[in-house]
Amino acid sequence: MAEEKICSEITGTVWKIEMGVGDSVEEDDVIMILESMKMEIPVLAPCAGTLKEFLVDEGSAIAEDQVIAIVDT
């Protein structure tokens, strides 16, 4: 299986993780929500597959372009 890395588009905080490792996802499913400047920004799955790993936890500070999750396609 190939891996697709999901990167943060913003600097902020992981507000809520919506799915779990091992869950099946479809393209554009919301996998987590980030918070930045009091705005909630959804992180969408870039492709269909299975969530392999989260590289952050709820409450983690993240940087723009940081890899935050991996999907097996």
Structure in words:
This protein is mostly beta strands. The chain has no helices and eight strands. It has one domain: OB fold (Dihydrolipoamide Acetyltransferase, E2P), CATH 2.40.50. The mean pLDDT is 97.
Topology diagram in text:
Blueprint: E1 3-7, E2 12-17, E3 24-25, E4 30-36, E5 39-44, E6 49-54, E7 61-62, E8 67-72
Antiparallel strand pairs: 1-8, 2-4, 2-7, 3-6, 4-5, 6-8
Short overview:
The chain is mainly beta and 73 residues long. It is built from no helices and 8 strands. The chain has a 4-stranded antiparallel β-sheet, with no helix packed on it. Strands 5-4-2-7 form a 4-stranded antiparallel β-sheet, with no helix packed on it.
Q: Please state the second-level CATH architecture.
A: Beta Barrel
Share in helix:
under 10%
CATH-defined superfamily: RNA polymerase II/Efflux pump adaptor protein, barrel-sandwich hybrid domain
The CATH class label is Mainly Beta
Could you give a short account of the major beta sheet? 4 strands, antiparallel
Radius of gyration: 11 Å
Spatial order of strands in the largest sheet: 1-8-6-3
Run of helices and strands: EEEEEEEE
What is the CATH topology assignment?
A: OB fold (Dihydrolipoamide Acetyltransferase, E2P)
Q: Using DSSP, what is the number of strands?
A: 8
Distance between the termini: 6 Å
Low-confidence stretches: none
Number of helices: 0
* Mean of all residue-level pLDDT scores: 97
Overall, the morphology is globular
